[in-house]
Amino acid sequence: MNPIDTQSLMLQMRSLAAQAESKSVVDATESVQAGGDKAANFADLLAESVQSVNHEQHKAGDMKKAFEQGDSEMELSEVMLQVQKASLSFQAMTQVRNKLVEAYKDVINMPL
Length: 112
Fold this sequence. Notes:
Elements: H1 6-33, H2 38-68, H3 76-108
Helix pairs in contact: 1-2, 1-3, 2-3
InterPro entries: FliE
Subcellular location: Bacterial flagellum basal body
Main location: other
């Protein structure tokens, strides 16, 4: 197994986090600009987001399992990066959900 350079690993993780953040903003902007039924676009965007997070979680789980079973092609740094990527995507989805719930409560509590 190769020695792990923690500094370069942290830089890679920060780079991936920045890419994931900018990609989700660009995807959301493109979806809204596409026109059509905005509610359907939002529902589609939300469903795609949940599926993407689910895919990242399963991929991380599969990689961890392969590494634990001694797969020679699986590097620890790759597994760690995927686990961090899955964790960041889940945290982002949780924050979006919290904001949506908060906005829903604000709309419900508006006086008529």
